[in-house]
Design a protein that fits this description.
This protein is α+β, with helices and mostly antiparallel strands. It has two helices and twelve strands, in the order H-H-E-E-E-E-E-E-E-E-E-E-E-E. The structure holds calcium ion.
Length: 264
């Protein structure tokens, strides 16, 4: 399945098309005048045309609003740090973990996020919880790019999406959902990819996930999971898709143990 980054496209009339249509409007006007139609019929036709134009404008406004209302607020970091909070676990507090928004070569728009640390560290940025229902399907996506000097500690996940699964105000049973670099989906602990070489060009991490039973809200987060240096992220989206959309199967390895011991 192909996912379009921009779900809707706006068509702006070009100057040439405006010039092309303007004489046609005049022609139609003359045709109406010369048609000999009774005035009330002409008026009726004009009113219908105006209603059609009004509905067209309303449709465009509705489409614009849908495109602007991402489930993850400020998903493209165009409003700076608004809506995002950094989370640094105790074991990484002395690694100078840092989150800011920069304008250097974003994936889209003018800005993107930068997660940076002086040493190998595990830390993330999170957005507000989104109400969901069990069984719903969501397409999750983010674009990431690592600074050429950045690296992931060997045998660690590197950079991952974490979906914090919650029931009420407590963690949902079964652990959170992770999508690792390479699009491996797992529960409770992120998958360690075969290669933890971080991409130095904009690369997408994506999957379609199903909300597990007992989950009523999801907290989207991006995590540097034992990386060092600067990693950039942009357009982090969580979009509800039709329940018939195929779910990315949970990653399974018959031989490799989990990277982090299961605690639940
Ligand atoms: Ca952006």
């Amino acid at each position: 399945m192909t996912w379009n980054k921009e779900p809707f496209m706006y068509v702006q009339p070009s100057e040439s098309s405006k010039n092309r249509y303007a004489p046609d409007s005049i022609k139609i006007g003359w045709w109406l005048l010369e048609s000999g139609l009774p005035w009330h019929e002409m008026k009726h036709g004009c009113v219908k045309l105006m209603r059609l134009a009004y509905l067209l404008v309303l449709s465009c406004v509705a489409i614009h609003n849908v495109a602007a209302d991402s489930l993850v607020p400020n998903s493209g970091f165009e409003d700076g740090l608004t809506g995002w909070q950094i989370f640094i676990p105790d074991e990484s507090k002395d690694k100078n973990c840092h989150f800011d928004v920069v304008s250097t070569e974003p994936y889209s728009g003018l800005n993107c996020a930068r997660l940076q640390s002086d040493d190998f560290a595990r830390f993330g940025i999170g957005s507000a919880f989104i109400p969901v229902q069990a069984g719903e399907h969501y397409h999750v996506s983010v674009w990431i790019k690592a600074d050429p000097t950045a690296q992931a500690r060997p045998k660690t996940p590197g950079f991952v999406i974490r979906l914090y699964l919650r029931q009420g105000t407590a963690d949902a049973a079964g652990g959170h959902l992770f999508i690792s670099y390479g699009n491996a989906v797992s529960r409770n602990t992120p998958v360690v990819p075969e290669s933890t070489t971080l991409p130095t060009t904009w690369t997408q991490i994506e999957a379609v996930i199903e909300i597990p039973p007992g989950v009523d809200s999801v907290g989207p987060a991006l995590f540097s999971w034992w990386t060092q240096g600067a990693i950039y992220a942009d357009d982090f989206s969580l979009d509800k898709v039709d329940a018939s959309t195929a779910v990315t199967p949970l990653w399974q390895s018959p031989t490799t143990p989990p990277a982090v011991p299961t605690t639940k």
